[in-house]
Amino acid sequence: MPLFEYPELAFSQITLLVISWIWLLQRNDEIPLIISSFMFYVASYRYWAVTQGINHWVNLTSLGLSSVTQEAALEALAYIVFGQICLLGSYMWHQRKIMPIIMSTDVDYSVLKWLYPKVIVLGLFCLPLVVVTRSQVIMQLRVGKSLAFQISSYLYLFPLALVGITTLIFCLWKFGCFPSLLSKIYAISIVFGVFELTFGSTGRFQFMGWITAAGIIVSSSYRPKTRLVIIGSFLLFAISLFAIAGAMRNPNFADDRLNQAAWERASSAEDANMLDGFVLLQNVYPQRLDFQWGMEHLEILMRPIPRAWWPEKPVGGYMNKLGLTIHGGKGTLGISPSLFGSFYAEGGIIGIFLFSLLYGIIMAKIVGYTTKLKPFAAILVRAILCASLLPLLRGGDLPGIYAWIGMAFWPCFLLLWIKRADWRLKLPESVSVYYREIE
Fold first, then answer.
1. Cis ω on the peptide bond leading into residue 7 (within 30° of 0)?
2. What is the model's pLDDT at position 4?
3. 439 domain-assigned
4. pLDDT tens across 280-336, in order?
5. Contact 211, 34 (CB under 8 A)
């Protein structure tokens, strides 16, 4: 008999959702709400949708993995709720500051005037380069090369740089840094370019990430109640397009059938199968593979080394480690187990506990640090963090996720480093207005 039943676990996640909602209203901090909303959808709601017959568990028995059962899913749900409590508890304990309402009028525009033409030039330069890069990847795939093992990840992930450039464009637009019609046209063209890049069945979590970042930036100058509505609207828009992108996997759907299929996928949590992935991962660790004991995170430092330099470099993901491939060994398959599943692979419940606390502390320090930065840099850092949260919470191959974050936001990281002296907040009272009332 399981220690906790579904009503207790679902109630716990709903309670965390309410607490996160109050946290946003009181502290103007959206991080707990994003975490709680995502985890509730992929965990408790996913369990309910399957057990009510709206959907079904992922079945990978053809690859030699055990089938997902209701009892195993309930156990995995308990692990996820435990990890979520540890993560949010650690974050809220260490993040005690009230986030400032960004005032676009209290900005030193000298740096932004220097920045905006460079962002436009970089974006316009990268757009055709991305087309060439993607063409090269497609050509290598057509001649039979493996995307996982034979094609450079730098080549495959380079187009993601447009995500960071788009995030900078949203920030610059928010602060009114596009003075002419032509500059606005250039900026919109780049945004449409990144939309085309990430709107598809393979880049959907990246798509949700930068849409979330856009919502954080657009809402940054409003009070918490208004921010809640704006961020919720952006997330609803992102989820809708996310479901449509998933439904597009079937090319035979007409437009009206596509919309219906997208609604069915969203309402049945078809793409939110992280709970299933956690169960599959539990069947692997420690029965078929030893716990990683930190190696998953150590591989983050090893991942940038090209396989051409290190042919024996360890592969990422338990599917690869088990040698489970598809399409004659040319591709790999994996069901993401959520971030807490990745923690479980590190060391079982001990791994979930320790890494949840650690991640909560790190995120709290990052968010707290933004209160020491000038408005543009502060909202840029928070937007990057929120955009990174969704693929990170999805879990799976953590080195691959961090590689995505690095390749997507290197323009932002480079800017923050080069202009680090200009971003420091010297006169907090004259630069930011802090929201201290509970409405």
1. no
2. 77
3. no
4. 999 888 888 888 898 888 888 887 777 777 777 677 677 777 766 554 444 455 678
5. no
Contact 80, 275 (CB under 8 A): yes
Query: How many other C-beta atoms can be found within 10 angstroms of the C-beta atom of residue 227?
Result: 23
Phi/psi for 338 (5° steps) reads 75, 165
Region 216-229: mean pLDDT is 88
**Cβ neighbour number for residue 128 with a 10 Å cutoff:** 10
Q: What are phi and psi of 101, to 5 degrees?
A: -80, 120
Q: Classify residue 1: in a domain, yes or no.
A: no
In a domain, 289, yes or no: yes
Distance CA 187, CA 76 (A): 44
Q: Mutual orientation of helices 375-394 and 161-174 as an angle, nearest 10°?
A: 140
DSSP assignment letter at 426: S
The domain tally of the chain equals 1
User: What token pair was written down for 426?
Assistant: 């010297």
d(CA 13, CA 4): 13
Q: Which amino acid is at 120?
A: I
AA letter at 86: C
| Residue with token string 């962002």 | 119
Among candidate residues 126, 253, 153, the one with its CA nearest the CA of residue 201? 253
Whether 326 maps to a domain, the answer reads yes
Alpha carbon 269 to chain centroid, angstroms: 17
| Helix-helix angle 204-219:224-247, to 10 degrees | 160
What does the alpha-carbon distance between residue 439 and residue 423 come to, in Å, rounded to a whole number? 31
State if pTM tops 0.85: yes
Query: Please, are residues 94 and 361 in contact by the beta-carbon 8 Å criterion?
Result: yes
pLDDT in tens, 119-161: 888 888 887 887 777 777 777 767 666 565 566 666 667 777 8
| Three-state secondary structure call for residue 108 | coil
**If you ran DSSP here, which 8-state letter would residue 270 be given?**
S
Q: To which H or E segment does residue 94 belong?
A: helix 70-94
The domain of 61 spans 6-434
Rounded to whole angstroms, the Cα distance separating 164 from 161 reads 5
What is the tens place of the pLDDT at every residue in 159-168? 778 888 889 9
What letter does residue 308 receive in the DSSP assignment?
A: T
